[in-house]
Amino acid sequence: MWGSGRFAQLCVIVLTLGAAQENFCSQPSLSRFDGFPKQLDAAIYWFGPEDQTEKATGSASKFYDPSRPTMLYFHGWTGQGGGWTSKCKRLTTRCHPDICPNGGGQLLVNSWLEEGWNVGFFYWDQFSDEECARDAEQKLWFDRGGDGIRWKSFDPATGRTEYRTYQENLDELSVSDMCANSVKMAMGSFKGSQVRFVGHSLGAQLAVRCASLLHVEDHAAAPQRLALLEPYFSKHSHMYFFGCHAEVTTDEGMGDFAAKLTVQFVQHLWKSKKVVTEVYKSSQLTEETGEESPYSELKNLVENGAVGGVEKALVGNLASGMRAEDLERSGTMVKYNPDWCEGVGSSTMGDVEHVACRHCAVMPMYLLGFGRAPPALRPPPTERSEPGSALSSCMTPSASCTDGQLRQWVQRQLDMAPTRQSWLQIAGRRTFDEVDDAFQLDPSIEQGFQLGLRSANSLVQKTALELPKGQEFSLHALLTTPWMLLSVVGFVFTVVAAAIFVKHCQRWPWQGDDSDDELSQSPNTTRRVSMYSREPEPSPGYDPLLASQMGSSFSSTGSRTVLVQPMPPLLPLPAVAGGQLYRKPL
Fold it and tell me: Buried b / exposed e across 113-126, counting CB within 10 Å, b at 16+?
């Protein structure tokens, strides 16, 4: 075992190697962004060929066409190695050398652009530039002190770095609120076929919450698909990962608040809007290897019952981050093994030295996967499947799979709950080129049949159906889509007519005039309740995206939410009063 000093030293090397000599403060680099890094520049930028950029204005432009499908990317924490702001560093569509092999420089979204997609990045890097990742994470959900959200400023002319406070818009209580407003401004006239949000690390939480805010309003730019790359949730001590060097207490910290709320948002978006979620992992920061495989989990459920299976469920909680296992059961789950990271940023051996690369590796691999066929399964499935089905055209979830194909895999996952399915990379781990990648599905299709999952397997063998954007059933769609409105009116008319006919038949002479009265007066009569009865529709606002357990823990004003009291017993809410600290000094 290493001493804490040696461990901290290694981690500092990992997070700063390859970036120590980088300096992006040249005039060509600075001219790409509006006032960054001296002025706050939290906004959406559109990207074009050769990594060209332009700031979103809300109108059609050189790199944005409101009639085209759109992908928005959400980066994660930027406080490592002294912070990116003081280096004038920003993530773009050209891969950095501390993330991609061979010196970096790979263009990550060429295939997206060639297929006619708009590609945008939402930058919140000046807010996420905190020494401790948890301090950045809190900003996604609330204003900790209630007096504004701090951001980092750097003046390249003087070399001065300082923190300032954002207080300009009282409607923006968190970075997620800023995100939703930025999307509505940039894509107010959007009429394309689909929107996809892709979030990495802390950016995965941001993508989910921003999406939920947009769906509350049935906004045209609300996404139908969420790709969560290495979703990170802080909890206990970070063991010097992500900059939390001081002693950390969870008494007033985030706890599992962010993870549980993110899961509930994902689950509600699936149930109400059929928004599909795909999860990808590539490092130990968000994953702990359990003793049992998903197949063993399911086999244990079949043999020993649900109680035994739940008791043996995989629960991982690395000191560096919390594993949100329920999130894995709410979508597709793919695990990459980027052993090629051994040649990036460090010449030392072992997984720990390359943890930064492994944590970031899934980002370029996902983006580059859009222009390639999904990775193969090994062993290949022997069961027949229809063309266009998940099993034939999307054996392993990837950026190039259609939303409908991923929905089939998600439904298979839900049908085998409470266990989980996952894909594990078993080939192509040492090469950055994904053409030789292969994965193992657990439980496989064959194992699924052995365990009695015939109905779950059949879901992925049929041709996938795509849901046209805007045609999911909702009150907004009902009132604004003529054919849906006419269909519903016709259905209601038919039901009413049938009810009148049945009632009329019951009063025909040969049935007797008093039968209804006698039935209604009988003391033994049992009133039947329709199995299709529904609870009242939730009121407009943010609350519909919260599970029932959260009840009175939230109050809504319009589309924003104010955290008003702790959430016993499921989601204990961090203290947010002004002046309260989240880390104890050394």
Answer: beeebbbbbbbbbb
- Vertex 206: Cα angle to 15 and 148 (nearest 5): 90
45 beta partners:
55, 121
C-beta separation of 244 from 561 below 8 A = no
DSSP state of 396: S
In the chain, the amino acid numbered 383 is E
Check: CB of residue 385 under 8 Å from CB of residue 432: no
> Using an 8 Å Cβ cutoff, are 471 and 481 in contact?
yes
Alpha carbon separation from 218 to 225, 495, 541 (Å, rounded): 15, 29, 11
d(CA 384, CA 389): 10
Q: What is the pLDDT of residue 321?
A: 53
Report the distance separating Cα 211 and Cα 198, nearest Å: 11
d(CA 223, CA 270): 12
With 0-12 / 13-18 / 19 or more C-beta atoms within 10 angstroms meaning exposed / middle / buried, residue 103 is exposed
Sign, CA torsion 475/477/480/483? negative
pTM reported for the whole predicted model: 0.74
Are the CB atoms for 106 and 95 separated by under 8 Å?
Answer: yes
- From 265, 269, 188, 179, select the one nearest 225 (Cα to Cα): 269
Res. 304: pLDDT tops 50: no
Predicted confidence (pLDDT) per residue in 133-143, tens digit: 989 999 999 99
Nearest-angstrom CA–CA distance, 583 and 586: 9
CB–CB of 394/471 below 8 Å? no
C-alpha closest to that of 110 among 51, 195, 67: 51
Question: Which of 127, 105, 118 has its CA nearest to residue 54?
Answer: 118
- Report DSSP letters for 39-95, one per residue: S----EEEE-GGG-EEE--SS-BTTB-TTS-EEEEE-----GGG-SGGGT----SBP
